[in-house]
Amino acid sequence: MDYQSLLNDVVSDVAAYRGQGKVASYIPTLAQADPQKFGIALVLKDGTAVTAGDAEESFSIQSISYVFAVAQALHHLKGSLWNHVGREPSGLPVGSIVQLELEKGRPRNPLTSGGAIVVCDQLMTTCGAAAAGDEMLEFLRDRSGDPSVAVDDNLAMSESRAGAFNRSLANFIAAFGNLHNPVEEVLSLYYRNCSIAMSCSQLARAALFLAFDGVDPATGDTITTESRSRRINALMMTCGHYDSSGDFAFRVGLPGKSSVSGAILAVIPGTGTVCVWSPGLNAAGMSLVGMAALETLIDRTGWSVFV
Ligand code: GLN
Question: Which domains does the chain have, with CATH numbers?
Answer without folding.
Answer: 3-301 (3.40.710.10)
